[in-house]
Amino acid sequence: MAEETGTQDSQGTRGSLDEGIRLYRLKKWDTALAELRSVKAESFTPEENVELAYYLGLCYTKLERYDDALLYLEQVVTSGHDVLRVYQCRMTLAYIYVITKRSKMAEFELNLLASSGFESAQLYATLAYAAWAQKRYKQSVSYYEKALGMDENNATALNGLGYVLVDAGMDLIRGLRCCKKAVDLKPHNPAYLDSLGWAYYKSGDMLEARTWLRRAFDAAPDKKEIVEHLKIVTGKR
To answer: What separation in angstroms does the CA of 171 have from each of 1, 79, 132, 149, 175?
Structure first.
């Protein structure tokens, strides 16, 4: 009888994990996190514990609770159970390090991936962003160009390259062209709308700059960089 109860408890625990994963895939981050945190993993296999840590890390990342996310994502990386999950977690770690202004740590994670053969447009675009954050503009451009060499229609790389070229005054014409293409590919992305507006501002076209920056602001009024750019262009500081 005790053995049967133990089996039922194990199945119920696994059911909570599966439900948390289902909620995560539905983008219900808060609910998914609550479900995953309720899991009693004492009877889990090592693989199931890694799976739990993986989804907890992703949920915390989506909720911008980055210190909590790092704890769980690093567990997945050190486990080495699933190569693709380790890749994704290293990419997510790099993203968190960039967002939290730890660009050198981001580069460390990304260079590990690149040296292991996990090259991708996403990887080089993230390396480019990390280089830009450290004001290494030429290196940033080089990484963005590598990303576009792998995927010429990668909107993230096009937007990033365009922004670096215009903001650093390296090539206004090419930068504006890249920003336009990024917006053509994803016309509702506020970051891309902001970059295009900023590119027009740097090029001296104030009317277009105000138009695109207002669109960016309407799409994401809480983004500090967009607000700052709009204030500069409109003179309302």
So the answer is: 75, 45, 15, 19, 6
**Hey, what are 209's tokens?**
């700059």
Kindly give the residue spans of alpha helices, DSSP state H, lying in the chain.
Answer: 2-25, 29-37, 46-62, 66-79, 83-99, 103-115, 121-133, 137-150, 155-167, 172-185, 190-202, 206-219, 224-234
pLDDT tens track for 143-198: 999 999 999 999 999 999 999 999 999 999 999 999 999 999 999 999 999 999 99
pLDDT tens, 86-111?
888 998 999 899 889 898 898 888 88
Cα gap 113→185, rounded to integer Å: 28
Q: What is the gyration radius of the CA atoms in the chain, in angstroms?
A: 21
d(CA 35, CA 20): 5
Question: What domains, with CATH codes, occur in the chain?
Answer: 162-237 (1.25.40.10)
Would you state the pLDDT for residue 7?
Answer: 43
- The type of residue at 29 is W
Residue 237: pLDDT band by 50, 70, 90 thresholds? low
Amino acid letter, residue 200: Y
Question: Do the beta carbons of residue 163 and residue 179 sit within 8 Å?
Answer: yes
